[in-house]
Amino acid sequence: MAEKTFNIQPLGDRVIVKAVEPAEVMKGGIIIPDTAKEKPMEGHIVAAGKGKNVDGKIIPMELKVGDRVLYGKYSGTEVKINDEEYLIMREEDVLAIIK
Q: In this structure, are residues 79 and 14 in contact, taking their beta carbons and an 8 Å threshold?
């Protein structure tokens, strides 16, 4: 995935995630309309904050730009940046890093 430059820097322990869209055609060749698709739960980190502030100390993020992650179905806040849709969420809303 090519990295893009953003005019937005997430604060604290927040990340910006670009969702990976699910395939439109299933194994049997059935095409799934947009209205019937489930929300994606996988994406790529495209920007990350510096870390969580605990008692005046910054705890660095485990996540970094480029990580492929799984997150909760209803996690994050949807935003539109440069005419593309992204999610802004806390690091704790990310369930796993896909290796």
A: no
